[in-house]
Amino acid sequence: MKKIIAFIFCLAFFNTAFAQLDRSVRPEAGPAPELDFGEYKLYELDNGLKVIVVEDHKLPRVSMSLVIDRKPVFEGDKAGFIELAGEMLRQGTMSRPKAQLDEEVDFMGASLNTSSSSVFASGLSKYKEKLMELVADVAQHPAFPAEEFSKLKKQMISGIESSKDNPQAVAGNVFNARLYGKDHPYGENATVESVNAVDLDDCKTYYSNYWIPNATYLAIVGDVKAKDVKKLAKKHFGDWKPGNKPESTYPTPTKPDGLAISFINKESAIQSVLVMGNTINLKPGDPDEVKMALTNEILGAGAQGRLFLNIREDKGYTYGAYSNYDSDRLIGEFTANASVRNEVTDSAVTEFMKEFNRIRTEPATDEEIRGAKNAVIGSFGRALERPQTIANFALNINRFNLPEDYYETYLPRLEKLTKEDVMTAAQNYIQPNHMHLTIVGKASEVADKLESFGKVQYFDEEGNVTDKPSMPVPDGVTAQTVIDKYIEAKGGAENMKKVKELEIHRKAVMPGAPAPFDQVDLQKSPSLYRSTMTVPGYGVVQEMLYDGEKAYMTNQMGTKEVEGPDLLSIKLDALMNKELKYDELGYKLKLLGMSMVDGKKAYVMEITDPMGDAFTRYYSADTYLPIKEEKKTDTPQGPVISTTTYSDYREVKGVKYPYEINLIMGPQKITLTAEEVKVNEGIAKDAFQKKE
Fold it and tell me: Is 452 exposed, middle or buried (0-12, 13-18, 19+ CB in 10 A)?
């Protein structure tokens, strides 16, 4: 099954080649760029809508961004309704059902997207009035169709469930909950329960409260005339009625004394995901913002930062170690992150803390200062090549009450900064003695070593406090007894041995795919196997065949014979009922303990195949049927865990099979639903022969 799963994920993942560089050497600086800040026009309609226009006649295109300038909103027990409200805006208007809206956008070859606080559209400038008409209609007259709302809720819940198997997503969610507190809009996270509690009226109420013209900016960039845009904006937005801006206040997050360590246990983890940082009182436009930009560039903004050069290049603990900061009107943050091997987790934390303290106390070298300034100047200059940047600058100047020349004077202010400015900024905003550290990893190998940094608290994926993992395996339970119970639960050895042929038809759904695809798996004792995937309109897109001796992989590029270790792995996967003869085949079983899977107890077993490849399988403590499987998969970005979940077991001729399988790797999720399972109903011999 392991090779088969990897085969399926070929549909969603592609390898990326990276050039080999010496990251420890900054590229030499070129001449200082001559920056053109461009011009923009600002108009305000009678209803308070502010219109920003940036003319750019290089290409016959136009983009429109409608931005609601609102403060953060605390969602509470219905966290998720704001995101749903934003997605609902794209589901049709009072005069345009979703299908018609889609058709009008497609006809122009344009794009139109919405969020909880914006509408964005782009297309050819000859359609500028039509585009503005659609943006105005979506923003002012959303229909909020109930049937689309139900679909979006299901999609959001599916995404939340998938994210629980994504260590980076879990680390980010729990870190925010700990950094800001769950009673703060920046610290709350949508859960299955909170999304289920959302009704359509919640979305409508949010829209009516916050989508008002006197809290909105319309930025137009492209091949347009400012005077024409002003007329169009008045025509399409002039009747939008203003309202009262809601105001809210929130408690200031408290900072811990020392390092507050939050641990989320993943017993199958082969690396630890680290996120650490502290809140900062740094608002947009603050004089210290440019100082912090330079400081962060030196510390960890990229591959020339101290964190990367130390923890990646020198120590080799990780593929990358970085830092970042965010200024914010309410409360900002400084953060740093890396994914490191289990055995060096505590050492990596030591190095992070060392670098935090070093930049606070040790002056940067002249080379570091110059290199960091060049990097910031380069990023600034490249950003100015995009006309949208000018519109963004104008938005920021107006939203945050910045001086009109704020961006024009940014680089001269940067050039004046000194080593002392960097140390002062670090001392003010990087606070290792008042930090939160969140780790997603394998507690049994990592957690105890972290006690030297401070008390370790344990949390679940939603940021709820839990006990330290310590679920002992009941007396008398071994790896073999769990396997024996599994065989009994599946249907018993005798019934399993009777299965000589197995044919399963599945429907596979992958978010973002144009349509579901069909998967047909054929298996014949002892080890013949064929898996075929077809997509409507495309035919066969992937196929794997093992004829008992040779294996072949087929895609739209052709057919290739599989050799070496991959062939041996496919041969093992193709074996019928191999669980009945693990000892004979040379499999090694190790019962790691017990764990909770979606609130249910499970036995955690490490299974190593005869080739030495290991994976972790979770057997329900109630049914003894497998409910989850995890395996390390190497990618160009480093190792990741691929997760497979099994559910909806049904009996066919005395043997149980999972009718729903979810394959998860990173953000990608594929759901396989069995539509038909046939046992011993006859499979033609040539089904396992290579097609010429």
Answer: exposed
Cα within 13 Å of Cα(142), Cβ side: 27
Which CATH architecture is the domain 472-688 placed in?
A: Clam (2.50)
Rounded Cα gap, residues 351 and 203, in angstroms: 46
Looking at the structure, give the CATH architecture of the domain made up of residues 41-237.
2-Layer Sandwich (3.30)
Backbone phi, psi, residue 435, to 5°: -115, 155
Q: Decide whether 41-237 matches 258-466 in CATH topology.
A: yes
Whether the CB-CB separation of 229 and 53 falls below 8 Å is answered with yes
Which pair of tokens denotes residue 354? 């060392």
Six token digits for residue 266: 């993943």
How far apart (Å, rounded) are the C-alpha atoms in residues 48 and 52?
13
Cα–chain center distance at 403: 36
Q: Around Cβ 642, how many Cβ atoms within 10 Å?
A: 22
Whether the pLDDT of residue 528 is over 80: the answer is: yes
User: Is there a contact between 414 and 256 (Cβ–Cβ < 8 Å)?
Assistant: no
At CA 480, angle to CA 475 and CA 483, rounded to 5? 110
Answer yes or no: is pLDDT of 332 > 90: yes
Question: What is the separation, in whole angstroms, between the first and last Cα of the chain?
Answer: 26
| Beta bridge mates, 54 | 221
Q: Select 258-466's CATH number: 3.30.830.10, 3.40.630.10, 3.40.640.10, 3.30.2130.10.
A: 3.30.830.10
Residue with tokens 């740094």: 282
Distances (CA, A) of 579 to 388, 545, 575, 585, 609: 59, 22, 9, 9, 11
Round the CA-based radius of gyration of the chain to a whole number and report it: 29
If pLDDT is split at 50, 70 and 90, which confidence band does 78 have? very high
> pLDDT over 90 for what percent of the chain?
77
Cα torsion through 307, 309, 313, 316, rounded to 10: -20
- What average pLDDT does the structure give for the chain? 91
The set of residues, in sequence order, having a beta carbon less than 8 Å from that of 245 and lying 6+ positions away, is 70, 212, 214, 215
122 by DSSP, 3-state: which?
Answer: strand
Domain boundaries, the chain: 41-237, 258-466, 472-688
Q: What angle do CA 171, 155, 517 make, to 5 degrees?
A: 110
Q: What is the pTM of this model?
A: 0.74
